[in-house]
Design a protein that fits this description.
Oligomer: single chain
Helix content: 40-55%
Shape: globular
Order of helices and strands: EHEHHHEHEHEEEEEHEH
CATH class of one domain: Alpha Beta
CATH architecture of one domain: 3-Layer(aba) Sandwich
Structural class: alpha/beta
Distance between the termini: 8 Å
CATH superfamily of one domain: P-loop containing nucleotide triphosphate hydrolases
């Protein structure tokens, strides 16, 4: 089964999609992870991508689609995969439609106030890419209670999974967040409408936090198999 995760920055796409990939025993494919590895290795792709991210911009569609096409051709994707971070534009959604049949699209939903708080508190392992979040949110916003405990490492600044150091990415800095959210809103609405018209999209609010929302997502996937 092929499942796409959508949602604004800070909604938890990376964390949720990785957990669901582990539960369903299929690969987790993140274009963001692929780009960050290229940046870390200072490849020509990494240098180009770093300039885009530093300006709060999206990586050009052609580059992203080419990289994805190569990745999903691997044998470990034969039984399906979880796709995180793609598509980010309507053009990418159409390109993906030409590559594969998407079975289900999970659209993660959260209030903008929550997104800003979560983004600024996000930490990522520089070594393995594991995601943490230091924000502990428990409040009512627009009549909906958000109960989202922090996802913190056992040792401050150290990844539980590999012992690597945790970093605060430049695109998670406060001065970049508003620009990222604005771009995402402009780009994502057409994508959401595209998949909603196809009948493959399910909205899931993440207000209950990770541990309570994971079973909801798992049940949603099972109902589509």
């Amino acid at each position: 089964m092929i499942v796409v995760f959508l949602g604004p920055p800070g909604s938890g796409k990376g964390t949720y999609s990785k957990r669901i990939a582990d539960i369903t025993c299929v690969p987790h494919i993140s274009t963001g992870d692929i780009f960050r590895e290229a940046i870390h290795k200072k490849t020509p792709l990494g240098i180009r991508v770093q300039k885009n991210l530093a300006r709060g911009e999206l990586v050009p569609n052609g580059i992203t689609t080419k990289i994805l096409r190569e990745r999903i051709s691997h044998s470990d994707c034969e039984k399906g995969f979880i796709l995180d971070g793609y598509p980010r534009t309507l053009a990418q959604a159409h390109a993906l439609d030409n590559l594969i049949h998407v079975d289900l699209v999970i659209n993660l939903v959260a209030h903008e106030e929550v997104l800003v708080t979560k983004l600024s508190a996000r930490r990522i392992c520089a070594q393995c890419g594991e995601i943490y979040n230091l924000a502990n949110i428990n409040k009512i916003i627009d009549g909906l209670r958000y109960d989202m405990p922090s996802i913190s490492p056992q040792i401050t600044g150290v990844c539980d999974k590999c012992g690597g150091g945790l970093v605060h990415r430049k695109d998670d800095q406060v001065d970049v967040i508003s620009h990222r959210l604005q771009i995402n809103s402009q780009q994502t609405i057409p994508i959401v409408n595209f998949y909603r018209l196809k009948g493959t999209l399910e909205d899931i609010n993440v207000n209950l936090g990770l541990e309570k929302t994971i079973p909801i997502i798992v049940n949603t996937i099972r109902n589509h198999t």
